[in-house]
Amino acid sequence: MSSKVKSNPLQKIFTASNYLFMLLFVFLCLYPFWYIFIYSISDPRFVNLGVELLPRGFTLFLYRQVLAMKGIGHALFISTARTVIGTLATVFSCSLMGFLFTKQEMPARKFLYRMLIITMYVSGGLIPYFLLIRSYGLVNNFLVYIVPGMVSAFNVVLVKTFIEQLPASLEESAMLDGASYFTVFTRIIFPLSMPIIATIAVFSAVGQWNSWFDNYLFAGNNIRLRTLQLMLYNILNEAQRLADQMNNPSGGTIIDPKRMTLTPTGVRMTITMLVTLPILIVYPFMQRFFIKGIMLGAVKG
Amino acid sequence: MISTSTVAIRPKRPAFRRNKGIILLLMVLPLMVLVVMFTYLPLFGWIYSFYKYRPGVPLFDSQFVGLKYFSMLFTDSVDMLRVMKNTVIFALLGYLCAPVPMIFAILLNEIRNQKFKKFVQVTTTLPHFIGWIIVFSLSFSIFSSDGLLNDVLMALKLISKPTNVLADSKAVYVFQTLLGLWKGLGWGSIIYLAAISGIDQEIYDAAKVDGAGRFRSALHVTVPGLMPTFIVLLLLSIGSFVGVGFEQYFIFKNALTANNIEVIDVYVYRIGLINNDYSYGVAIGMMKSMVSLVLLFTTNAISKRVRGTSII
Q1: CB-based contact A211:A229 (threshold 8 Å)
Q2: Mean pLDDT, to the nearest integer, of B158-182?
């Protein structure tokens, strides 16, 4: 900013080390993903030579093999389905609820709203929740991925706050024309609230894609409902158990130098990449929504 | 004439309003039912802690044992003390790291190149959006005995035998805390960056007039300007003191680290859903909820008294 202080040598050292520190942290944040990526596209015959900064050879062998593995295609389908359906359901219910709570004429509005807010601070705990889900018949049921998370108090608060700052006149004129609440919501409020809707959609989609514990708990042995995340978790567990038992590298399979073979490490790396890729692809475009989300949340909190 | 017309209209308006109100209520109720089903009804599950409940036996045929499971909390001292200790250590290490996002934001704010600043912000926020399973997979690939780190260190002849920090029970506290920091630092700093841009530019100008360089303005303007945000976030996190988290510790738990990584939530899972001791599991969970509620209300009251604003 000021040219006078810049000549200070101490300042120069600080600026240089600051840039260096930032670069180091950026490296720490990106390199693990890069490492997995270059490993997964390296030629399995050469990985024993070490893969550090660049892939050794190039092949999609691992991806072809892994995608042909039993259950992977279906797991990919389930993960995608829960992400799409779950996000749509959450966005619909949270935005509708946020809209309804802006309506002063709703009886018991304050009471209901407060009841919703309390859910951010109170929970019955894992075991009562588990028993209840079981009694609802949601075990081994796809709906367990969708329904319990449909209403999130935090999202409702975000939407409500956003709608409250929209000009009321648009809505009023539509109401005078005889439009119903639902029409006002779908035709006027929903399109106007796109910035905040996009934010909660992105949050919810990432949450859904990353979820695995509901799968583990309520459909752990059900292959038909297995998500990609849980599949990766199982594979990792297996790898760790092997490593524990033998106290010896899990990827210690003998590698035939003439043929490409599928090693446990290769499978692990490739599935990790498959699970991470959607987030890595979507992230650069979505990150402004994330930032908007935390800002709005912070203002409320 | 005038009076009759008002009489004629009057009963009509409230009815019209009531109708609209009922429509609104009918629209919101199905959603409220979901809230009740998945957040309020589980609270009734706390009743299990007063019965000797066994899966398969209906609750009403179970033996009422009163506070037996709660007194067990104090007699089952070996395990309870151990998981309490772990929980407290992770929580305290978490607090120790609480200023790091703020410091990172201040340092990042000193970067004058806007493009680079944006790049750093975007890349360091990425780990926040990666699930713990992937974090585990990345750590496994890098830190396990045949992982990258060992390969590199062995190749450089810095070590002769592979080390595995994932199976090191002594390193677990620091290692898990560092992982948490890696995952949350960029994300946590966003809010401070916003707070910095909210600090009045005139204060910086005044400091410059008074002869303050960049260090001094950071120290005497930025840091005090960020303090309210820092304190609010710190107070908010006290409520979740006993709920340090579940996924991270559950996923990273293995035979060698189990003793030190097991926090309350992981313990509840093991007691309740592995050992099938539902009642005791519920009792531990209840104690945990009570403690966090008490902490939340206490910090809220302190915040009201000291700062004049409540945090919830």
Answers
A1: yes
A2: 90
